[in-house]
Amino acid sequence: MNQMKSFLRHLKKNPLYAGGFSNRADVFSNFQKEDDPKIQIVYANYVNEDYSGVATVFYYRRDTRKYYETYASHCSCYRLEGQWNSDEILVPEEMEKRLSNGQLGDGDIFKQAFESFKEGR
Fold first, then answer.
1. Which terminus, N or C, of the chain has the lesser number of Cβ atoms within 10 Å?
2. What is the tens place of the pLDDT at every residue in 35-68?
3. Does residue 119 lie in a domain region?
4. Model pTM?
């Protein structure tokens, strides 16, 4: 559990962007949401293929000192706009549970980064 806490502290400084997200601006732009300086993105992944897409964003809010998740999906008709609906997540317990159950968005990317972190790469 301590490794996950350390990993998440690392990601607050060095966020993991994957898929259609390459930086913070991509995330806020795709959701058509104004950038919020209180949000520290930890992990953001957007898989957009075959006229549909799925996005997962984990972030830390400086004002509440809590972690949150935003999940969104779309078909060919719309994009991610208007879907920034966040739920608080318990960290690190929830992250470790999701990793072990394979229920972490595109968890392979997050899992590989976590394994590399544990190995000290």
1. C
2. 999 999 999 998 887 778 888 899 999 999 999 9
3. no
4. 0.83
